[in-house]
Amino acid sequence: MSISTSAKSLVPSDPAKVMVIRDITPNITTLSVPFFRFGHIKVGGRGTLVKLQTGNVAVFSPVAFTSDVQAKLKSLGPVKYIVAPDIEHHIFVSMWAKEYPDAEVIGMEGLPEKREGDPATRGTKFAHVFSAKNKLDLKISPEFDAEFSYEYFHSHVNKELVFLHKPSRTMIEADLIFNLPATEQFSRTGLDARAGILTKIFGGIMNTRGDATWHKRFLWYGAGSKDRTGFAESAKRIKAWDYDRVIPCHGDVIETGGKATVDKITSWFTESKH
């Protein structure tokens, strides 16, 4: 079990040298790495570890399983949940599932089939699979559900699973919003996270500054365009959540003011304005 050949070109050759492991709270640790979309655009990648009150650990959007990550996990506790938060963020799921064979893998409709089509990723069993039909009824477990709320954006082009860690008032998400530039994720590479024409263009769209009009347009005309009604229903549900911090997979962590930021970027859906 490994990562697919096509994915190898997207991840750093020696992730241990460039990964930033940071404790966001006593129970939340981020694993930030450089990541290039389409081989050129600096968007960064991030895995998130959350230690539950039971002592078990949930990992969201797992990144490379390095010796430093392994050491960190020994100090936190056993991994019980491995979450692929969308149809694209699953590159290292097999690696983590092999290390923690008793962990429950969580994903969404279409992902198990996608992985079974690749010899490098097939064979991983998914314990929980969200779909448009079961999304309002599916439960993970008492210990997980005691600390997390979750919403499945089945109408997003990447089929997004978004989580709220209620004790820390932290949203954890993959591609719902970006917060570029990815300064922390490229901080150990010696590369400028803003450099490059394609990075500048994409970063000009996928940021949270000002009124974030281009980000709103990206969701309205792109990621959420095929089913705006369904997207709006999901956006309205997470608007009711109580949180302050946002941990995105792409770009820097929004330490405070995250709810206002997400509400702003999704406002064309929640307020029926554009």
Automatic annotation (TrEMBL):
Pfam families, alphabetized: DUF4336
Cross-referenced SUPFAM superfamilies: Metallo-hydrolase/oxidoreductase
Protein name: Metallo-beta-lactamase domain-containing protein
Source organism (scientific name): Cladophialophora yegresii CBS 114405
